[in-house]
Amino acid sequence: MFSDVCVKAPAKVNIGLKVLKKRADGFHNIESIFQTLDFADELKVHRISEPKCVINCAQMRLPLENTLTKTFTAFRNITGIDFGIDVELHKVLPAGGGLGGGSSDGASLLKALSDLAGIELTHSLADSVAEQVGSDVFFFLHSGFFQKGRGCALVSGRGEIVEPIEPRTDLSFLLIFPGIHSSTAEAYSLVDEAYKSGKEVSCPDFSELRRFYYGSVDAWEFANSFTPVLIEKYPLIGEALQDILECGADWADMSGSGATVFGVFESESSAKEALLKCQKKWKCVLAH
Predict the structure, then answer these.
(1) What is the set of active-site residues?
(2) Which partner for 129 in 6, 20, 74, 140 could form a disulfide, CB atoms 3.0-4.6 Å apart?
(3) Do residues 263 and 252 touch, judged by C-beta distance below 8 A?
(4) CB-side exposure of 149: number of CA atoms within 13 Å?
(5) To the nearest 10°, the Cα dihedral for 13, 17, 23, 27?
(6) pLDDT digit string (tens) for 195-205?
(7) 3-state SS string for 208-230
(8) CB 160 within 8 A of CB 127
(9) Across-strand partners of 33?
């Protein structure tokens, strides 16, 4: 067992995201490819004797209940650990950015807790915690990231069905942050309204996602159900999307429920040129 653990909590992007019509229970099924990037938060987790979760984050003020506190509480209730943790969170992933930052933090804290407790993080334990924290947590736990340092998967259901696939390592991702905080609840509500009015985004069949992913990026037909409705409400997202394409991206879209826009480049030199152009106007970062 350890007394201190340091873990990375990577961003993810959605390469295509089909949101299906609302289920009878009020939730939505999705179909997507999730991929982690080397753009990440960092958690330094220290074991303390008092059974509580103390979080320090200089970059932003976290709500009293958050994915870290939920993860700690769920893990303690399931395993019966008698210790607490002091977490120093270095936050670089934007809140409400569609990059899974909160879920990634939760998944990485769970990995740290299992190391601190000397308890094997089995699929069963991971899933029992994830279902109490958030749907995206399943991806970070089962994508292969903790085993290989890079994760990619076909994701379906509410996000809990994760089929790992081999991640492409030949791509560069330019992320633009338009400075808009888009709430997931609002985004789903807008998609529901679009369905009611007969508007539906054309997305490849789930069975075709893997084939497109491994093909040439400029032939990708992926689409995000959230993109048109969010652009209509926040035109700045559309402006960012247009700029990143004009700067040479082979393919671009919004990630998750927004508002981060990202371009995919098969040429790293083209991605670096695009970064120089885009950063004159936007807050952006190049990742792989």
Answers:
(1) 12, 136
(2) 74
(3) yes
(4) 3
(5) 20
(6) 999 888 999 99
(7) HHHHHHHCCHHHCCCCECCHHHH
(8) yes
(9) 15, 154
